[in-house]
Design a protein that fits this description.
about 70 residues, mainly alpha, about 65% helix
Length: about 70
């Protein structure tokens, strides 16, 4: 994870990020790959680090980034 080594989030923001991650993961087809969960989490951390606090927006951005990510 890049550029977030010095970022700290208050507990209420961590709760928002957790809700966004759980909601995003719930939309993925089974089986859910750990790489997808990691990509979603990184996106949510990065987006929250830039100031976004709406869980639905965090979820939506993470899912869009996952769709745009190159396939390995």
């Amino acid at each position: 994870m890049k550029n977030l080594s010095n970022v700290a989030f208050p507990p209420e923001v961590i709760e928002l990020m957790t809700a966004a991650l759980e909601a995003a993961v719930a939309t993925l087809p089974e089986p859910v790959h750990s790489a997808h969960v990691n990509a979603l989490a990184e996106s949510i951390l990065r987006t929250a680090g830039s100031g976004e606090r709406d869980p639905a927006t965090l979820q939506r951005i993470a899912l869009m980034e996952l769709q745009l990510a190159p396939r390995h």
